[in-house]
Amino acid sequence: MTGAAFPPRVFSGIQPSGNLHLGNYLGALKRFAEAQDRGVETLYCMVDLHAVTVWQDPADLRRATRELAAGFLASGLDPARSILFNQSQVAEHTQLAWVFNCVARMGWLQRMTQFKDKAGKNAQNASLGLFAYPALMAADILAYHATHVPVGEDQKQHIELTRNIAIKFNTDFAVDFFPVPEPVIEGTGTRVMSLRDGEKKMSKSDVSDMSRINLTDDADTIARKIRRAKTDPEPLPSEAKGLKDRPEARNLVNIYAALADLSVDAVMQEWGGRPFSEFKPQLADLAVEQLGPISAEMARLMQDVTEIDRILGDGADRARAIAAPILRRTYDIMGMVGPREV
Ligand code: AMP
Ligand code: TRP
Predict the structure, then answer these.
(1) Which CATH number fits domain 9-190+304-334: 3.40.50.450, 3.30.360.10, 3.40.50.620, 3.40.50.720?
(2) Whose CA is nearest to atom 8 of ligand 1?
(3) Relative to the alpha carbon of 23, which ligand is closest?
(4) CB neighbours of 223 closer than 8 A, spacing ≥ 6?
(5) For this structure, is 168 an active site residue?
(6) pLDDT tens-digit profile of 313-338?
(7) What's this model's pTM, rounded to 2 decimal places?
(8) Which of the ligands is closest to the CA of residue 197?
Protein backbone atom coordinates (compact mmCIF):
# COMPACT_ATOMS: atom_id res chain seq x y z
CA MET A 1 0.00 0.00 0.00
CA THR A 2 3.03 2.33 0.21
CA GLY A 3 2.59 2.62 -3.55
CA ALA A 4 4.67 4.65 -5.95
CA ALA A 5 2.13 7.44 -5.41
CA PHE A 6 4.14 8.75 -2.50
CA PRO A 7 7.43 10.43 -3.35
CA PRO A 8 10.25 9.79 -0.88
CA ARG A 9 10.21 12.15 2.05
CA VAL A 10 12.22 11.74 5.24
CA PHE A 11 10.92 12.80 8.65
CA SER A 12 12.46 12.36 12.06
CA GLY A 13 12.24 13.96 15.47
CA ILE A 14 14.31 14.28 18.60
CA GLN A 15 13.12 15.34 22.03
CA PRO A 16 14.71 18.50 23.39
CA SER A 17 15.63 17.12 26.74
CA GLY A 18 19.26 18.15 27.10
CA ASN A 19 22.68 16.50 26.91
CA LEU A 20 23.10 15.58 23.25
CA HIS A 21 25.71 12.82 23.14
CA LEU A 22 27.75 10.71 20.75
CA GLY A 23 24.88 8.19 20.44
CA ASN A 24 22.54 10.93 19.25
CA TYR A 25 25.18 12.12 16.80
CA LEU A 26 26.08 8.76 15.27
CA GLY A 27 22.60 7.21 15.55
CA ALA A 28 20.60 10.24 14.46
CA LEU A 29 22.15 13.60 13.54
CA LYS A 30 24.91 12.29 11.28
CA ARG A 31 22.47 10.07 9.42
CA PHE A 32 19.95 12.88 9.14
CA ALA A 33 22.64 14.97 7.43
CA GLU A 34 23.50 12.08 5.09
CA ALA A 35 19.85 11.81 3.98
CA GLN A 36 19.80 15.54 3.32
CA ASP A 37 23.03 15.29 1.34
CA ARG A 38 21.55 12.56 -0.85
CA GLY A 39 19.06 15.17 -2.01
CA VAL A 40 15.88 13.62 -0.56
CA GLU A 41 13.34 15.99 0.94
CA THR A 42 14.02 16.05 4.69
CA LEU A 43 12.11 17.39 7.68
CA TYR A 44 13.58 17.29 11.17
CA CYS A 45 11.63 18.28 14.22
CA MET A 46 12.49 19.19 17.81
CA VAL A 47 9.56 17.45 19.46
CA ASP A 48 8.85 19.75 22.39
CA LEU A 49 5.27 18.48 22.74
CA HIS A 50 6.62 14.98 23.27
CA ALA A 51 9.06 16.28 25.89
CA VAL A 52 6.24 17.67 28.05
CA THR A 53 4.62 14.25 28.45
CA VAL A 54 6.79 14.36 31.57
CA TRP A 55 7.15 17.65 33.45
CA GLN A 56 9.76 20.04 32.09
CA ASP A 57 11.09 23.16 33.68
CA PRO A 58 10.10 25.91 31.18
CA ALA A 59 13.50 27.62 31.14
CA ASP A 60 15.24 24.26 30.66
CA LEU A 61 12.89 23.29 27.82
CA ARG A 62 13.50 26.58 26.04
CA ARG A 63 17.24 26.17 26.34
CA ALA A 64 17.21 22.50 25.36
CA THR A 65 15.14 23.23 22.24
CA ARG A 66 17.60 25.87 21.08
CA GLU A 67 20.58 23.68 21.98
CA LEU A 68 19.11 20.80 20.02
CA ALA A 69 18.61 23.12 17.04
CA ALA A 70 22.24 24.22 17.43
CA GLY A 71 23.24 20.53 17.49
CA PHE A 72 21.38 19.92 14.24
CA LEU A 73 22.98 22.91 12.55
CA ALA A 74 26.46 22.08 13.84
CA SER A 75 26.11 18.48 12.59
CA GLY A 76 25.62 19.66 9.03
CA LEU A 77 21.87 20.10 8.76
CA ASP A 78 21.33 23.03 6.43
CA PRO A 79 18.12 25.02 6.94
CA ALA A 80 18.09 25.82 3.23
CA ARG A 81 17.93 22.12 2.30
CA SER A 82 16.16 20.58 5.31
CA ILE A 83 13.11 21.87 7.10
CA LEU A 84 14.15 22.33 10.74
CA PHE A 85 11.49 23.34 13.25
CA ASN A 86 10.01 22.74 16.65
CA GLN A 87 6.80 20.76 16.86
CA SER A 88 4.67 23.16 18.91
CA GLN A 89 4.86 25.83 16.20
CA VAL A 90 2.94 23.66 13.76
CA ALA A 91 -0.53 23.08 15.18
CA GLU A 92 -1.32 20.42 12.55
CA HIS A 93 0.68 17.88 14.59
CA THR A 94 -1.71 18.02 17.54
CA GLN A 95 -4.77 18.31 15.30
CA LEU A 96 -3.86 15.16 13.39
CA ALA A 97 -2.86 13.48 16.66
CA TRP A 98 -6.46 13.84 17.84
CA VAL A 99 -7.68 12.07 14.72
CA PHE A 100 -5.17 9.29 15.36
CA ASN A 101 -6.25 9.05 19.01
CA CYS A 102 -9.57 8.03 17.51
CA VAL A 103 -8.01 5.59 15.03
CA ALA A 104 -5.55 3.82 17.34
CA ARG A 105 -6.91 1.24 19.78
CA MET A 106 -6.25 1.19 23.54
CA GLY A 107 -4.77 -2.28 23.20
CA TRP A 108 -2.20 -1.13 20.66
CA LEU A 109 -0.93 1.59 22.98
CA GLN A 110 -0.96 -0.68 26.01
CA ARG A 111 1.60 -2.86 24.27
CA MET A 112 4.14 -0.04 23.85
CA THR A 113 7.27 -0.96 25.79
CA GLN A 114 8.49 2.65 26.02
CA PHE A 115 5.32 3.60 27.92
CA LYS A 116 5.80 0.68 30.27
CA ASP A 117 9.43 1.66 30.83
CA LYS A 118 8.77 5.35 31.31
CA ALA A 119 5.62 5.01 33.40
CA GLY A 120 7.29 2.46 35.64
CA LYS A 121 5.36 0.86 38.46
CA ASN A 122 3.01 3.77 38.92
CA ALA A 123 1.30 3.78 35.49
CA GLN A 124 -1.90 5.21 36.98
CA ASN A 125 0.02 8.35 37.79
CA ALA A 126 1.58 8.79 34.34
CA SER A 127 0.19 11.60 32.19
CA LEU A 128 -2.46 10.80 29.59
CA GLY A 129 -0.04 12.42 27.13
CA LEU A 130 2.65 9.84 27.89
CA PHE A 131 0.19 7.10 27.01
CA ALA A 132 -0.94 8.83 23.80
CA TYR A 133 2.65 9.74 22.85
CA PRO A 134 2.91 7.29 19.92
CA ALA A 135 -0.26 8.65 18.28
CA LEU A 136 1.32 12.11 18.27
CA MET A 137 4.45 10.57 16.80
CA ALA A 138 2.36 8.99 14.03
CA ALA A 139 0.86 12.43 13.38
CA ASP A 140 4.35 13.98 13.16
CA ILE A 141 5.24 11.55 10.40
CA LEU A 142 1.96 11.27 8.52
CA ALA A 143 1.15 15.02 8.55
CA TYR A 144 3.86 15.20 5.86
CA HIS A 145 3.10 11.92 4.11
CA ALA A 146 6.66 10.99 5.06
CA THR A 147 7.79 7.65 3.65
CA HIS A 148 11.05 7.07 5.54
CA VAL A 149 11.82 7.57 9.22
CA PRO A 150 15.43 7.25 10.41
CA VAL A 151 15.33 6.21 14.06
CA GLY A 152 17.19 4.13 16.59
CA GLU A 153 16.25 0.53 17.31
CA ASP A 154 14.20 1.61 20.34
CA GLN A 155 11.68 3.46 18.15
CA LYS A 156 10.87 0.52 15.90
CA GLN A 157 7.72 -0.35 17.81
CA HIS A 158 6.42 3.22 17.48
CA ILE A 159 6.94 3.16 13.72
CA GLU A 160 5.10 -0.15 13.57
CA LEU A 161 2.21 1.56 15.37
CA THR A 162 2.38 4.46 12.89
CA ARG A 163 2.11 1.95 10.05
CA ASN A 164 -0.91 0.34 11.69
CA ILE A 165 -2.58 3.72 12.14
CA ALA A 166 -1.98 4.59 8.46
CA ILE A 167 -3.37 1.22 7.33
CA LYS A 168 -6.40 1.40 9.62
CA PHE A 169 -7.25 4.95 8.50
CA ASN A 170 -6.94 3.96 4.84
CA THR A 171 -9.07 0.86 5.42
CA ASP A 172 -11.71 2.55 7.60
CA PHE A 173 -12.31 5.25 4.98
CA ALA A 174 -11.56 3.15 1.88
CA VAL A 175 -8.82 5.48 0.67
CA ASP A 176 -5.14 5.20 -0.16
CA PHE A 177 -4.39 8.47 1.55
CA PHE A 178 -1.60 7.89 4.07
CA PRO A 179 1.65 6.19 3.05
CA VAL A 180 2.81 3.30 5.21
CA PRO A 181 6.22 4.62 6.29
CA GLU A 182 9.38 2.57 6.63
CA PRO A 183 11.73 2.78 9.61
CA VAL A 184 15.34 3.29 8.55
CA ILE A 185 17.56 1.56 11.10
CA GLU A 186 21.02 0.82 9.84
CA GLY A 187 24.73 1.35 10.30
CA THR A 188 27.25 0.81 13.07
CA GLY A 189 26.07 3.93 14.89
CA THR A 190 22.51 2.80 15.55
CA ARG A 191 23.40 1.52 19.00
CA VAL A 192 26.23 3.30 20.73
CA MET A 193 26.75 1.78 24.17
CA SER A 194 27.83 3.29 27.47
CA LEU A 195 31.59 3.70 27.93
CA ARG A 196 31.22 2.15 31.40
CA ASP A 197 29.03 -0.82 30.51
CA GLY A 198 28.92 -2.35 27.03
CA GLU A 199 25.48 -3.85 27.66
CA LYS A 200 23.80 -0.50 28.33
CA LYS A 201 22.92 2.15 25.76
CA MET A 202 24.78 5.44 25.93
CA SER A 203 22.11 7.67 27.38
CA LYS A 204 21.54 11.20 28.55
CA SER A 205 19.91 9.86 31.70
CA ASP A 206 22.89 7.77 32.86
CA VAL A 207 24.03 9.16 36.23
CA SER A 208 27.69 8.76 35.28
CA ASP A 209 28.90 11.49 32.94
CA MET A 210 31.89 9.22 32.17
CA SER A 211 29.48 6.83 30.45
CA ARG A 212 28.88 9.18 27.54
CA ILE A 213 30.59 11.74 25.34
CA ASN A 214 28.48 14.87 25.25
CA LEU A 215 28.49 17.00 22.13
CA THR A 216 29.37 19.91 24.41
CA ASP A 217 32.49 18.19 25.89
CA ASP A 218 35.82 19.83 25.11
CA ALA A 219 38.76 17.97 23.55
CA ASP A 220 40.43 17.09 26.87
CA THR A 221 37.23 15.69 28.32
CA ILE A 222 36.57 13.58 25.22
CA ALA A 223 40.10 12.16 25.28
CA ARG A 224 39.93 11.44 29.02
CA LYS A 225 36.57 9.63 28.72
CA ILE A 226 37.89 7.41 25.94
CA ARG A 227 41.13 6.64 27.80
CA ARG A 228 39.10 5.59 30.83
CA ALA A 229 36.49 3.65 28.86
CA LYS A 230 36.01 0.11 30.13
CA THR A 231 37.72 -2.65 28.09
CA ASP A 232 39.02 -6.14 28.64
CA PRO A 233 42.73 -7.06 28.77
CA GLU A 234 42.81 -8.91 25.41
CA PRO A 235 44.15 -7.28 22.25
CA LEU A 236 41.69 -6.48 19.46
CA PRO A 237 40.56 -9.54 17.47
CA SER A 238 41.34 -9.72 13.77
CA GLU A 239 37.79 -10.57 12.72
CA ALA A 240 34.43 -9.03 13.62
CA LYS A 241 33.17 -12.33 15.05
CA GLY A 242 35.89 -12.17 17.71
CA LEU A 243 33.94 -9.26 19.24
CA LYS A 244 30.90 -11.38 19.93
CA ASP A 245 31.29 -11.83 23.68
CA ARG A 246 33.24 -8.63 24.26
CA PRO A 247 30.61 -5.88 24.50
CA GLU A 248 32.98 -3.09 25.57
CA ALA A 249 35.53 -3.90 22.87
CA ARG A 250 32.75 -4.17 20.30
CA ASN A 251 31.37 -0.79 21.29
CA LEU A 252 34.71 1.00 20.89
CA VAL A 253 35.27 -0.65 17.52
CA ASN A 254 31.76 0.30 16.40
CA ILE A 255 32.32 3.90 17.46
CA TYR A 256 35.61 3.96 15.57
CA ALA A 257 33.99 2.49 12.46
CA ALA A 258 31.07 4.94 12.59
CA LEU A 259 33.31 7.97 13.11
CA ALA A 260 35.76 6.92 10.39
CA ASP A 261 33.00 5.80 8.00
CA LEU A 262 34.62 2.37 7.78
CA SER A 263 33.13 -1.10 8.06
CA VAL A 264 33.85 -3.08 11.23
CA ASP A 265 35.80 -5.55 9.09
CA ALA A 266 38.03 -2.80 7.76
CA VAL A 267 38.75 -1.63 11.32
CA MET A 268 39.58 -5.21 12.36
CA GLN A 269 41.94 -5.61 9.44
CA GLU A 270 43.84 -2.54 10.51
CA TRP A 271 43.76 -3.14 14.27
CA GLY A 272 43.51 -6.91 14.77
CA GLY A 273 46.11 -8.18 17.29
CA ARG A 274 46.97 -4.72 18.61
CA PRO A 275 46.29 -3.65 22.21
CA PHE A 276 43.70 -1.17 23.43
CA SER A 277 46.51 1.00 24.76
CA GLU A 278 47.30 1.80 21.11
CA PHE A 279 43.74 1.83 19.85
CA LYS A 280 42.27 4.20 22.42
CA PRO A 281 44.53 7.20 21.68
CA GLN A 282 43.69 6.85 17.96
CA LEU A 283 40.01 6.64 18.76
CA ALA A 284 40.33 9.69 21.01
CA ASP A 285 42.03 11.65 18.22
CA LEU A 286 39.34 10.66 15.76
CA ALA A 287 36.56 11.62 18.17
CA VAL A 288 38.17 14.97 18.99
CA GLU A 289 38.77 15.67 15.30
CA GLN A 290 35.10 15.00 14.44
CA LEU A 291 33.32 16.27 17.53
CA GLY A 292 35.54 19.25 18.36
CA PRO A 293 34.23 21.40 15.49
CA ILE A 294 30.64 20.41 16.34
CA SER A 295 30.87 21.48 19.96
CA ALA A 296 32.64 24.72 18.97
CA GLU A 297 29.94 25.49 16.42
CA MET A 298 27.18 24.71 18.93
CA ALA A 299 28.71 27.11 21.43
CA ARG A 300 28.97 29.79 18.75
CA LEU A 301 25.36 29.32 17.63
CA MET A 302 24.08 29.45 21.21
CA GLN A 303 25.39 32.98 21.49
CA ASP A 304 22.76 34.13 19.03
CA VAL A 305 19.44 32.55 19.96
CA THR A 306 17.58 35.12 17.86
CA GLU A 307 19.06 33.52 14.77
CA ILE A 308 18.18 30.03 16.00
CA ASP A 309 14.61 31.14 16.68
CA ARG A 310 14.42 32.68 13.22
CA ILE A 311 15.54 29.42 11.60
CA LEU A 312 12.94 27.42 13.61
CA GLY A 313 10.20 29.93 12.74
CA ASP A 314 11.04 29.79 9.05
CA GLY A 315 11.14 25.97 9.15
CA ALA A 316 7.75 25.93 10.90
CA ASP A 317 6.23 28.10 8.13
CA ARG A 318 7.50 25.70 5.47
CA ALA A 319 6.36 22.66 7.45
CA ARG A 320 2.88 24.12 7.89
CA ALA A 321 2.61 24.71 4.17
CA ILE A 322 2.95 20.93 3.65
CA ALA A 323 0.92 19.75 6.63
CA ALA A 324 -2.10 22.09 6.38
CA PRO A 325 -3.50 20.72 3.09
CA ILE A 326 -2.89 17.14 4.28
CA LEU A 327 -4.83 17.82 7.50
CA ARG A 328 -7.64 19.54 5.55
CA ARG A 329 -7.88 16.55 3.23
CA THR A 330 -7.92 14.18 6.24
CA TYR A 331 -10.86 16.12 7.71
CA ASP A 332 -12.66 16.06 4.33
CA ILE A 333 -12.23 12.30 4.08
CA MET A 334 -13.73 11.94 7.58
CA GLY A 335 -16.69 14.18 6.84
CA MET A 336 -15.72 17.32 8.71
CA VAL A 337 -17.37 20.34 7.10
CA GLY A 338 -14.92 23.08 6.20
CA PRO A 339 -13.43 25.08 3.35
CA ARG A 340 -12.78 23.28 0.10
CA GLU A 341 -9.42 21.55 -0.04
CA VAL A 342 -6.68 24.17 -0.24
P1 AMP B 1 16.96 10.18 22.74
O2 AMP B 1 18.24 10.78 23.20
O3 AMP B 1 16.71 8.85 23.36
O4 AMP B 1 15.80 11.13 22.82
O5 AMP B 1 17.11 9.84 21.21
C6 AMP B 1 17.26 10.80 20.18
C7 AMP B 1 17.74 10.11 18.91
O8 AMP B 1 19.08 9.59 19.09
C9 AMP B 1 16.90 8.89 18.50
O10 AMP B 1 16.88 8.81 17.07
C11 AMP B 1 17.64 7.74 19.10
O12 AMP B 1 17.39 6.51 18.44
C13 AMP B 1 19.10 8.16 18.93
N14 AMP B 1 19.92 7.59 20.02
C15 AMP B 1 19.80 7.84 21.36
N16 AMP B 1 20.71 7.15 22.07
C17 AMP B 1 21.43 6.44 21.17
C18 AMP B 1 22.53 5.52 21.27
N19 AMP B 1 23.09 5.22 22.45
N20 AMP B 1 23.01 4.97 20.13
C21 AMP B 1 22.48 5.29 18.94
N22 AMP B 1 21.46 6.14 18.76
C23 AMP B 1 20.93 6.72 19.86
N1 TRP C 1 9.87 9.21 19.96
C2 TRP C 1 11.12 9.63 19.36
C3 TRP C 1 12.25 9.40 20.39
O4 TRP C 1 12.01 9.38 21.57
C5 TRP C 1 11.07 11.06 18.97
C6 TRP C 1 10.06 11.32 17.91
C7 TRP C 1 8.90 12.01 18.06
C8 TRP C 1 10.14 10.92 16.55
N9 TRP C 1 8.24 12.08 16.87
C10 TRP C 1 8.95 11.43 15.93
C11 TRP C 1 11.05 10.16 15.81
C12 TRP C 1 8.69 11.18 14.59
C13 TRP C 1 10.77 9.94 14.47
C14 TRP C 1 9.60 10.45 13.87
O15 TRP C 1 13.39 9.29 19.97
Answers:
(1) 3.40.50.620
(2) 24
(3) 1
(4) 284, 285, 287, 288
(5) no
(6) 999 999 999 999 999 999 999 999 99
(7) 0.94
(8) 1
